[in-house]
Amino acid sequence: MIIGVPKEIKNNENRVAVTPAGVIELSKNGHQIYVQSTAGLGSGFADEQYEEAGATILPTIEETYAIAEMIMKVKEPIEPEYKLIKKDQLVFTYFHFASYEPLTKAMMASGAVCLAYETVEKPDRSLPLLVPMSEVAGRMSIQEGAKYLEKPMGGRGILLGGVPGVRPAKVLILGGGVVGTNAAKMAAGMGADVTIMDVSLPRLRYLDDVMPANVNTFMSNEFNIRELIRNHDLIVGAVLIPGAKAPHLITRDMLKEMNPGTVLVDVAVDQGGCIETCRPTTHQDPTYVIDGILHYCVANMPGAVPYTSTLALTNATLPYAIQLANKGWKKACQDNRELLLGLNVINGEIVYEGVAKAFNLPFAPAEKFL
Ligand SMILES: NC(=O)c1ccc[n+]([C@@H]2O[C@H](COP(=O)([O-])OP(=O)(O)OC[C@H]3O[C@@H](n4cnc5c(N)ncnc54)[C@H](O)[C@@H]3O)[C@@H](O)[C@H]2O)c1
């Protein structure tokens, strides 16, 4: 199969969908890979490395889209890319269709086959192509939180791990899923005094079993949250209710209960945030202060560490890409239900129910096209 890897053109996106290691694996399976010049540069991969791995470098995005039977990307296509996508072309990338109708309509009009990273789903209902980015964001939340706890950055001036004779910082993590668990591991490793809250008792039991001694678990409810925010220095928002907006677990009035200089990192900002006063920020201007409480609410945290994020993402996407390239999308989706669930738009029709519902558009089951 002919695979095209365009350079991401969305603002501040430095990740790339295939690394030179991925090119070697795909080539070994008999596929030809065309990479747009400088596509990998933001993640630390030069054109020469792709060429050595067996890819052909193309100078423009137009040529990369024009030659490919399958496009591998990271972010959803943006407007200038819409017209480059061809009928019957397979596009394998993050789409997040339900949040943007013009993209959905444009992909329907293109006649392409859109397989979305975010809806590829394992039998246990986990989302294998979202997990790596949650791992990155969870770990980063503590790195960023520790930085903003420093006085010159606006925080309380507390060192996360403390020192002998001085207490460490207290870190509260709301939500013990992928983000929360990774945040807890980092905070615990740095010597903080960590509490994770979740509404799932089985999850709390599991975390209690696997976490080190400086991590406590606590049932998440309003009473407990009000109690704990009074004496915690760094609070990480990491809740998710699949398919819904995040619930506001910390409301505006609660800010007054916190110590001035407390740092809030709301990782769930991409689902509306679990802190009422959270609004999306960027890496250029990541924080703001309300009632003396510092808020960090960057919506694409992994974007700051493209080297790690690209490798984490491509480790997860490559096995699926190889199946798609080896078998063609129809046979690959027949053989693997995880990939079948990734199909969102085929030949002008919406085949993912949640997307059709979001815009009140007709839905056709993907099986119809296999
Ligand atoms: N900002 C970013 O750059 C970025 C990057 C990756 C993920 N995220 C977001 O981070 C959030 C968390 O993702 P995840 O992968 O950890 O999800 P997850 O499904 O693995 O975990 C969510 C957890 O929240 C818990 N939860 C639900 N309601 C709760 C409540 N009221 N109180 C406490 N816990 C509650 C669930 O039981 C679950 O354990 C998502 O919104 C995701 O989109 C953001």
CATH H level, superfamily name of the largest domain? NAD(P)-binding Rossmann-like Domain
Classify the secondary structure makeup into a structural class. alpha/beta
Counting structural domains, the number is: 2
| CATH topology description of the largest domain | Rossmann fold
Radius of gyration: 22 Å
Q: How can the largest sheet be summarized?
A: 8 strands, mixed
Strand order of the largest sheet: 3-2-1-4-5-6-14-15
What is the helix fraction of residues, given as a range? 25-40%
Beta-strand content: 15-25%
Nearest-integer average pLDDT? 96
**Tertiary shape:** globular
What would CATH call the architecture of the largest domain? 3-Layer(aba) Sandwich
- Low-confidence runs of at least 5 consecutive residues: none
Total E-strand runs: 15
CATH class of the largest domain: Alpha Beta
Distance between the termini: 19 Å
Instruction: Count up the helices.
Output: 13
| Helix and strand element order | EHEHEHEHEHEHEHEHEHEEEEHHHEEH
Hetero groups in this structure are: nicotinamide-adenine-dinucleotide
